[in-house]
Amino acid sequence: xxxxxxxxxxxxxxxxxxxxxxxxxxxxxxxxxxxxxxxxxxxxxxxxxxxxxxxxxxxxxxxxxxxxxxxxxxxxxxxxxxxxxxxxxxxxxxxxxxxxxxxxxxxxxxxxxxxxxxxxxxxxxxxxxxxxxxxxxxxxxxxxxxxxxxxxxxxxxxxxxxxxxxxxxxxxxxxxxxxxxxxxxxxxxxxxxxxxxxxxxxxxxxxxxxxxxxxxxxxxxxxxxxxxxxxxxxxxx
Length: 237
Fold this sequence. Notes:
Layout: E1 4-7, H1 16-26, E2 30-32, H2 39-47, E3 61-64, E4 67-70, H3 72-82, H4 90-112, H5 127-156, H6 168-183, H7 185-192, H8 196-206, H9 209-215
Parallel strand pairs: 1-2
Antiparallel strand pairs: 1-3, 3-4
Helix pairs in contact: 1-3, 1-6, 1-9, 3-4, 4-5, 4-6, 5-7, 6-7, 6-8
């Protein structure tokens, strides 16, 4: 298995975590480049197009030999078959890709619970708007997204989104549930009551050998208030 290079900001889980989980579950050899000496400078240089014909807009991006892949869903679409976390037939791969793109939409809305007006503003500059947005998100949007995945798992026959075999989307669902539990512990308990299959996916993924070892290691960056999932008690309704 090739040694991969993952480029993402150090100190936060962020969107890069969805890629890390796939690499860790498969036991793939990879370097988390920005956590090494001069790593952030390397990210910035690549984004500026220094030495890259197709510069990425923003991390995460992944290098596999001479191949450079950007965007989480795109990276996982590439890695899935190689890490045995996706089927090889085209129809199933595209279906899985569509599910991961739905995860992408969900993550954007999670981010907007603390930055509903502008990413360039501090949370403290948009607290009233964040409270209003988060209230709607927890009441309507989060249950709708997770309810959709609940239906997908049910129709697959379970216990995972494609049936009996785990995929990278199941790993992403683990991260979504874990993140919501950190950011909105009260609301998460309420929402989870209606999506037992999603919760079961989370629990099954947490017990997988590679993931279990990763969660117990210092490679797993702790949730914090610089990432996507942030714990502001005033938003947890």
